[in-house]
């Protein structure tokens, strides 16, 4: 008796197995040339970026002093009609200029989690998962830029009358119909955030890191693939083969890049960061980014780092829990580079 195929995932997973990604790294391939071609193709998939950078027009809205740091609340322009609220934390009692860490929350009430400001019980639980990234950064002596990502916190949709209950879905779908992606738009905000940091005299612009968990890990990863000014990339609870994660488990719409699997899987994408430091943080029991998919992607990325003779700059740190950050594992390694 023949098998009947009625379930969409049967078709999609069989189709996935038949694909031969165009930009998968081949043994013996010249890695720098491969990166250059691959990065250009990835930019196209992400929806391209503005041809000309808009004036940043930064404004400091507030400055507060705390025991160990100063905190500025600010806003800058990423592109026309897209302004970025952020917090800048400047540590005291350190020699300036100092390295800077861009801090990115995932699906959460907003960037106030990064500065350790709990406004609800949910916020307290989130911070308890080591997500107060900006506070961690200044404790280590680094300047921190906590950016409000599109669709979260202060940048959530409020004007559209009928909208999805999931904050990022409408914007993600709108970007796709325009030939863009929400990942690409968020990456551009990071590019402009780096532009802003480079203008601050307190920042050592040669030592800029990017760190984020979950959706923040997504943008940390893709930003480092695109912008070589990020010297240390720390994606947490995101890096994982697409075939193990978003192709098999429900994920938010903002995780999807049209045609990405025709181009490459996660392991090859990681090769775009070589020879810079890539510190992958994962949870052994993460239910949406399975650890076997993390390890599979890591094996492929390691092949590319070997081609660059940069294996020592590639790290996999696995916490014993689930979908969260693991600061005790991560910071000793991050500090080696900053």
From TrEMBL:
Gene3D superfamilies: alpha/beta hydrolase
A Pfam family of this chain: Abhydrolase_7
Stored InterPro entries: AB_hydrolase_fold (IPR029058), Abhydrolase_bac (IPR025890)
Signal sequence coordinates: none
PANTHER family documented for this protein: ALPHA/BETA-HYDROLASES SUPERFAMILY PROTEIN (PTHR47381), ALPHA_BETA-HYDROLASES SUPERFAMILY PROTEIN (PTHR47381:SF3)
Name this polypeptide is given: Acetylxylan esterase
Organism expressing this protein natively: bacterium (Candidatus Ratteibacteria) CG01_land_8_20_14_3_00_40_19
